[in-house]
Fold this sequence. Notes:
With 236 residues, the chain is of the alpha/beta class. The chain is built from eight helices and eleven strands.
Amino acid sequence: xxxxxxxxxxxxxxxxxxxxxxxxxxxxxxxxxxxxxxxxxxxxxxxxxxxxxxxxxxxxxxxxxxxxxxxxxxxxxxxxxxxxxxxxxxxxxxxxxxxxxxxxxxxxxxxxxxxxxxxxxxxxxxxxxxxxxxxxxxxxxxxxxxxxxxxxxxxxxxxxxxxxxxxxxxxxxxxxxxxxxxxxxxxxxxxxxxxxxxxxxxxxxxxxxxxxxxxxxxxxxxxxxxxxxxxxxxxx
Length: 236
């Protein structure tokens, strides 16, 4: 049984491609094409993107900037990424709506749950920008919150690794991948899937999380179809 409504969480760093910062137009075009393919299959897609390729509030705090100010700057970075993805999707004839947690009426709608759900029902991709609109919360938490609000079937966390491992596979060649793991096992093993606030929100609301490699063409479609062996499913 394929998922019918999903929330796709992308990191800002994923949009850099091979660059050191900013947005790689080729990478964002590839993501847009992957999203278009699943939309054409009738899947309702909402998206949350991080802003780490442009600005990270927590890093600003480490450099001496006041945390709240840094976090709001990070929210604006997520809006820049959201606008870039919106443009890439519309360039290939995918209908979109951008909703932001901070009101920016010239460029986006304010987040309104009922309106977001209606857009999804009409086949539009809805991109949620500016995180939760509050400092001290990550875009992982924003993704969890929005997914719960729109009653998504699952959160799909697109990363550069193909799932959750016993250790960091980029540092430990003996690390092995989990195909499935429970929320309680993630807690017990001390694994990092999302920040704890986001992860707990998903657990308490029984929202599955799938961590997968977004950079492999076709993976998004396979994850939504629930093909075995693609990514790691965090379930109950």
